[in-house]
Design goal:
single chain, alpha/beta, two-stranded antiparallel ribbon, 12 strands, globular, binds adenosine-5'-diphosphate, binds magnesium ion
Length: 254
């Protein structure tokens, strides 16, 4: 059975200009789009969501001076609150979904994933359950602990799970060029020429914003796995992506 990985950005499901402010109507709408797709399709779906205002401001406040158990705890607690809201919404919409917390299942080395327990993810998929991972603060062999973005989780999961479709839903129509137009396709060949127009996030974001997203997904494209960046804030776009239709920017090797 083919596997689809969908990341929903923190910018979509939270108000990033605030602290711990979720966008319930957006979370519920996306849950309905996912539920409708799951009902019609026998496909393994793995969800990843960003932390938005339940992680970035907390990591900035509690982890800016480096590792502390209390900082890890407070940051993780916040993103876990958002994860619970997402899980509640998915389950209410009829999606059998369970949480997988990176802090409890992953090990980093200088920010890079070196281990992620996928045993439980595989078992959930076998039972038709949608595992829901999220950006998190994770134990790191070098740094003590480090922020693991949802954007970094997707390429790792895509490789180990041999995923057929990968998408990152954000709050913009795709990767935009200097004039604000959506770039239909990004390959390693054209990246150098457009990189200067791709930046971090406009809001509080301790990970890489759009440039981080594109960099992670370009690395994945090198393994022959392409992906899409599209606007999950627009109604119907999550459905479009899940159904394999054209959406946003394609990141591909060629
Ligand atoms: N060239 C670009 N195209 C699209 N977005 C860009 C670009 N450069 C910077 N950005 C910023 O990146 C943001 C998306 O990254 P981010 O806020 O981290 O979203 P997410 O919550 O989905 O991870 C956009 O809202 C925009 O402010
Ligand atoms: Mg981000």
């Amino acid at each position: 059975m083919s596997t689809v990985i969908l990341k929903i950005g923190g910018s979509v499901i939270t108000d990033k200009s605030s602290v711990e402010s979720e966008k319930r109507t957006e979370i519920e709408r996306i849950s309905r789009e996912i539920a409708a797709f799951k009902k019609e399709n026998d496909i393994n779906l793995i969800l990843v969501h960003g932390a938005g205002s339940f992680g970035h401001p907390q990591a900035m406040k509690w982890l800016k001076d480096g590792f502390s158990a209390r900082g890890v705890y407070l940051t993780h607690r916040s993103v876990k609150t958002l994860n619970s809201i997402v899980l509640e919404s998915l389950n209410n919409a009829g999606v059998a979904a369970l949480p997988v917390h990176p802090l409890s299942s992953c090990i980093l080395e200088n920010g890079k994933i070196i281990d992620l327990g996928i045993g439980q993810i595989r078992l959930m998929l076998e039972k038709g359950i949608t595992p829901v991972l999220h950006g998190d603060v994770v134990m790191d062999r070098v740094k003590g602990a480090a922020v693991l973005s949802g954007d970094r989780l997707i390429p790792y999961l895509a490789s180990v799970m041999n995923a057929s479709r990968i998408g990152a839903g954000s709050d913009v129509d795709g990767v935009l060029d200097y004039s604000g137009k959506v770039i239909k396709k990004i390959t390693p060949q054209i990246f150098a020429g457009i990189k200067k127009n791709i930046q971090g996030s406009a809001s509080t974001d301790v990970t890489g914003g759009m440039l981080g997203k594109v960099s992670e997904l370009l690395e994945l494209s090198g393994k022959g796995i392409s992906s899409r960046i599209f606007n999950a804030s627009r109604e119907g776009m999550v459905s479009r992506f899940l159904n394999g239709e054209d959406a946003g920017t394609l990141i591909a090797d060629k």
